[in-house]
Specification:
By secondary structure, this protein is mainly beta. Helices cover about 0% and strands about 50% of the residues.
Length: about 130
C-alpha cells in the first residue's frame, strides 16, 4: 500500500496544514496515483490557479515487483516553472524534469513541488507499507 498526504502551502500559512488531502493505492502492478490540477485524473489536486503545477504533474506508479516509482511528467513548456525534490531519511535529492526515481520499499519521505516565482509549494508525504 502507498499512502500519500498532500498539503498546499503559501508564505501566509507556512507550517499550517491548510488544504490537506489524502490518497492511497494497493501495491499491485500497474496501480497509479497522480498529483496535479486536473481533478478528473488526479487523486490529489492543487488549486486551479497554481499554474506552476501541471495539469498532471507527478505520477506514482507501482511496478511488477510491488515497488513504487515517482515520475515528474513533462508539461507543455520546455522549462518548468517549479522544482521538485524528494527527501528520504533527511537526504534531499532533486528530481529532474521528466525524470523517474524509485521510492524506498517500506519507507517514507516527502516530495516538494516548489514554485520558482512565489513562496508557495505542494508538499506530498508518502508512506510505503511493505
Amino acid at each position: 500500500m502507498l499512502e500519500l498526504t498532500m498539503a498546499v502551502v503559501t508564505a501566509a500559512d507556512a507550517g499550517a496544514t491548510a488544504g490537506m488531502q489524502m490518497a492511497d493505492a494497493p501495491s499491485e502492478p500497474g496501480a497509479v496515483l497522480r498529483v496535479g490540477r486536473d481533478k478528473s485524473v488526479c487523486r490529489l489536486s492543487t488549486p486551479d490557479d497554481w499554474l506552476f503545477v501541471s495539469r498532471v504533474h507527478l505520477e506514482f506508479r507501482c511496478g511488477p515487483d510491488g515497488t513504487w516509482q515517482l515520475t515528474w511528467l513533462r508539461g507543455s513548456q520546455s522549462e518548468p516553472s517549479s522544482e521538485v525534490r524528494l527527501t528520504v531519511g533527511g537526504h534531499a535529492q532533486p528530481v529532474s524534469y521528466g525524470g523517474t526515481v524509485p521510492l524506498p520499499r517500506g519507507g517514507s519521505g516527502e516530495i516538494v513541488v516548489q514554485d520558482r516565482t512565489e513562496p508557495r509549494s505542494v508538499n506530498v508525504g508518502f508512506y510505503h507499507e511493505a
